[in-house]
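Message: I would value a second opinion on how I read folds in token form. Give me a protein, with the fold worked out from its sequence. Write it directly below this note and I will take it from there.
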Amino acid sequence: MSLLYTKNREQDLVNMIAAEVHVGTQNVSEQMKSYVYKRNKDGIHYLDLAKTWEKLMVAARIIAAAQAKNPKDVLIVSSRPYAQRAILKFGTHTGANYLGGKWVPGTLTN
């Protein structure tokens, strides 16, 4: 592992903790159990940030590969109000399509 890769990873993990990415919910599906680090006394599950970071890097590589061919092939979608600014910025900087706010069911399939 290169030194730059390690420094970026460490900084990303610090940023993820600051953004409280590690705080999950009380409900955990069977598929998510391998990503849970531990559960606190209130029943809130904490996510394993090392595994989360690794999966984010895999997703980033997939998105980068798709965008290399045609940036408009990537669609960033979020119906959550707190993600609106993030998807707008990401779409603008990368040339990808983005769809924020409420959207009609079937938008992606029809």
